Amino acid sequence: MSRLPADCLNDIFEYLEDDKSTLVACLPNESKIFLHTNKIFIATPTSNPPLFNYVSFCKVISIHGINQMVKLVSKYNNYLISQEILKMFMNKITCLQELKYYSDHDSISRNIKFTKFPGATLCLKNLSKLNCSSDLHSEFFSQLSQLCCNLQSLTIEFEESVTKELKDLISSQRNLEYLTLIQSEDLTDITDIIPSLIKHSNTLTKLKIIGGTSIFISAFSNIQELILSHLYSQYLGNPFEDFKELQFVKFPQLQILKLQLIYRLPNYENLINFLENNGKNLKVLYIDDSDYSLNLSIAKFCPKLESLFNIILVNEIGSLKLILMSCKLLKSIKVWCGEDDYLNERELLDTVVKCSPNNFYELKIYYINNVRTELHPEELEEFLIGWTNRIPQKSLSLILITGYCTNSLNTKKENMEVIEKYKKSGVIKSFEVVNFDDESDFCLP
Question: Which residue range(s) make up the domain with 51?
């Protein structure tokens, strides 16, 4: 029998994880009999058992996903259906990789003690990624800390309480590398949990904080990636306030720095000092605000930068030129284009073709609101001719992020004819138009 490629199998199993009817069809006979005895009748695609043990290949379980599927299958006795599905997962999956379990006061699975089901020990033993809420029942955290000690990635969404058992689970891990902390409401004091987190300062390489305080990150001197977002500004204190304390802390391994909603930073001087101490090894920098002195500090303190997103205003074009000429390893930038205070496309393209370093090959243009393109095909072709004459000549990747804009440069037929001409000649390696940029690091899990 011919064998399916691994990536094809992965696609099949990912589909099945979200397919309610097939998932129910996979339930063992004893579960179907149990549900039938409780007057739960669920239509399935076939009465025959699956020819393949699909469930055993599932690598990710989402408790919320199971709840949603069960609600679509039946309006009644959802608790029992979820219980049997989780029992099947625990019994048939021998190596679960990721578990997503967030509190939901209406959750039909909230009180199912699935960590005690037959097979749970083997299923959860090698769990590497956990996304959870802080207020799950303490027994869940207690059981998991005994079953699983090899988490590499942990995401905690803080609710009203933080249990001792959650702290024990964090402390029990041996090789935690990625940590995400989310505070969406000003309800929880996370002070008590910080000692458990700091125990992993030697292994932790990626730290992501959405809302809340960030002062404790000074203990994580080995982090390579730091992401801070003030996403819930209406609820919480400002995490960027902590740069007053962090500005002189050194992170010698830091390579990726992403800061969202940084306009709430009280003083850019603190961030500039931070870059002076930590910018020399940065490869990726994301800052969603504009400040001329900050732009100059990027050019001065970040010589190894390869990818940059920074808002450049029209009166700051000189600082963009300086960044492009100073950061010799720069390969990619994303820049906002728009009316009034923002750069227009012609200014941006002219600056990029004249000032960008030899390694540069990717330009992302993010259109602000419904700006109307002012770029004529002659100007676009002038840019591409200039790009063709660069030595050495690297093929260009051009990405337009249109958002709500319906008048970006690709909406002009003549511009697209120029694009196609230079795609055929190889000057443009790829051309994409997307609605929104996938800054997945800032999305909630």
Answer: 1-99+106-127
